[in-house]
């Protein structure tokens, strides 16, 4: 089988300002390795032929050749007849290893808190109280009635009246985003996403063959006039937004902009995925957050919103329960589309989710308390050790966006990997080549790990070389 071949230009864009002082094959190999770990280069991708890549990078062919040899030796790539050097699928035991093959000691690549401490107790209760769960076939593409009722009731409590027929339970938010994108978008359609944003949502839009336009979000949030202007200009069929505690900035959209944006999007006949995966994780105090769809001034506007929620960040990432809230006809449409791809959500996980929702206020209180403390620790450490960095003023969520003041995100990330800290560089959150000046810092790890990570960041920043002469493709891609 011939693998998908990456062009030399595209790989150069993805590499961003990777180049340091050494300009050596080891450095190039470790940058490509980072792209694989971050998911920017999928297993099975064929790397460009050596000569065009050498020309694009302005290096000798011998250096590129030595780099590919290194990638094969370290198991990142392999030689496949007819395809050349191809990225290899990592074995599960390797996925958490650093460049030296040792496991990473610290991880700031995932913005994901540990399981909620009461989860085991919920499991024991579930087994004792719901033996009936195991009497069904277990195939369920819509969701158990009790869970859909509990999710709908929460929306109603939060100020958005909702009935169970507006809810479909999914295998997490990620699944919901992909399902909606492939149901509503076709090749050549226009879609819109904030930039930066959650990388897998961008992939979901792009995977349909749709064009992906961008809505800039800065360290101080959305520019209201520019946002409306971009929506008018692109007239997207489907948009993807994170209006509350946006990933990666942690910022929230103003209520005025929500109303205007929704009116504008629906006037153009578009739909919007509103990702509220982290909307209920508030910092400083536990606050109730009004769902985005409640900003609709008319019913037809509300029908354009497909809200995605999840227990992944509040209860546990390993509890693969998410949902979509939409108009009942849209739920039916999504369910029909879903059957092509999967056979449903596990009944047992839905039992646990229903029990977790009974205690959701307590869970959110716990999360809010610990994330507030962790956010404070991270902010203080960065202010003390890296005073030149500027952090976004997050009001919730699990991460902040740091402006480094210099285009060194990829080299920083590579240096961190050498020191045992896994860190996703800024360009992963936008189109290739942009956001070299930024890095996402999650604060979901323990306070001790955040203190240790900040020390590594300080060392890595001091050691990370300044970008070389290569000013690679900084243009925004629409
Ligand atoms: C904004 C956002 N949406 C969705 C997801 C995926 O959530 P889930 O674990 O429910 O699939 C994540 C996880 O990182 C996220 O940050």
Description:
By secondary structure, the protein is α/β, with parallel strands linked by helices. The chain has three domains: 8-94, Orthogonal Bundle (Arc Repressor Mutant, subunit A), CATH 1.10.10.10; 106-115 and 363-463, Aspartate Aminotransferase, domain 1 (Alpha-Beta Complex); 119-361, Type I PLP-dependent aspartate aminotransferase-like (Major domain) (Aspartate Aminotransferase, domain 2, 3-Layer(aba) Sandwich). It has helices at residues 8-15, 25-37, 50-57, 61-73, 119-129, 145-157, 172-184, 199-207, 224-234, 255-267, 299-302, 328-338, 347-358, 360-385, 409-418, 447-463; strands at residues 77-80, 84-87, 106-108, 167-170, 190-195, 211-218, 221-222, 238-241, 271-275, 305-310, 322-325, 390-391, 399-403, 421-423, 438-442. The strands form four sheets. Strands 4-11-10-9-8-5-6-7 form an eight-stranded mixed beta sheet, sandwiched between helices. The protein has a three-stranded antiparallel beta sheet with strand order 12-13-15, with helices on one face. A two-stranded antiparallel sheet has the order 1-2. α1 crosses α3. The longest helix has 26 residues, at 360-385. It is globular. The model is unreliable at 468-478 (pLDDT under 50). Pyridoxal-5'-phosphate is lined by residues 111, 172-174, 198, 242, 247, 275, 277, 310, 312, 317, 322.
């Amino acid at each position: 089988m011939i693998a998908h071949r990456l062009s030399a230009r595209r790989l150069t864009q993805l590499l961003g300002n990777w180049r340091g002082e050494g300009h050596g094959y080891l450095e190039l190999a470790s940058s490509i390795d980072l792209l694989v770990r971050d998911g920017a280069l999928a297993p099975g991708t064929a790397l460009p032929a050596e000569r065009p890549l050498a020309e694009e990078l302005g290096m000798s062919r011998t250096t590129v050749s030595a780099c590919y040899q290194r990638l094969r030796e370290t198991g990142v790539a392999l030689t496949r007849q007819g395809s050349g050097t191809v990225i290899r699928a990592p074995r599960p035991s390797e996925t958490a290893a650093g460049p030296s093959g040792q496991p990473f000691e610290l991880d700031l690549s995932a913005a994901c808190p540990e399981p909620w401490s009461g989860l085991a107790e919920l499991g024991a209760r579930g087994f004792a109280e719901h033996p009936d769960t195991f009497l069904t076939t277990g195939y369920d593409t819509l969701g158990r009635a009790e869970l859909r009722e509990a999710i709908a009731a929460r929306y109603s409590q939060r100020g958005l009246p909702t009935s169970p027929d507006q809810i479909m339970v999914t295998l997490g938010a990620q699944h919901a985003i992909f399902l909606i994108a492939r149901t509503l978008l076709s090749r050549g359609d226009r879609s819109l996403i904030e930039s930066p944003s959650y990388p897998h949502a961008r992939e979901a839009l792009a995977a349909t063959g749709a064009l992906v336009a961008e809505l800039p979000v800065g360290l101080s949030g959305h520019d209201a006039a520019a946002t409306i202007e971009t929506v008018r200009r692109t007239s997207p069929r489907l948009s993807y937004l994170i209006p509350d505690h946006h990933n990666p900035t942690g910022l929230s959209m103003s209520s005025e902009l929500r109303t205007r944006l929704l009116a504008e999007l629906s006037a153009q006949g578009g739909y919007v995925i509103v990702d509220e995966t982290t909307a209920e994780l508030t910092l400083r105090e536990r606050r109730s957050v009004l769902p985005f769809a409640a900003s609709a001034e008319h019913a037809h506007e509300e029908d354009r919103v497909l809200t995605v929620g999840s227990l992944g960040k509040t209860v546990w990432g390993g509890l693969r329960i998410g949902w979509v809230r939409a108009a009942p006809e849209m739920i039916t449409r999504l369910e029909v589309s879903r059957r092509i791809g999967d056979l449903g959500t596990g009944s047992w996980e839905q039992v646990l989710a229903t029990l977790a929702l009974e205690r959701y206020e307590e869970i959110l209180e716990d999360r809010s308390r610990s994330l507030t403390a962790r956010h404070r620790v991270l902010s203080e450490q960065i202010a003390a050790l890296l005073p030149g960095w500027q952090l976004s003023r997050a009001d919730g969520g699990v991460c902040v966006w740091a402006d480094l003041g210099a285009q060194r995100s990829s080299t920083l990330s590579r240096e961190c990997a050498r020191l045992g800290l896994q860190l996703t560089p800024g360009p992963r959150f936008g189109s290739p080549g942009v956001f070299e000046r930024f890095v996402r810092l999650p604060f979901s790890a323990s306070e001790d790990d955040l203190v240790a990570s900040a020390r590594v960041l300080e060392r890595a920043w001091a050691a990370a070389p300044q970008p070389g002469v290569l000013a690679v493709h900084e243009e925004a891609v629409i």
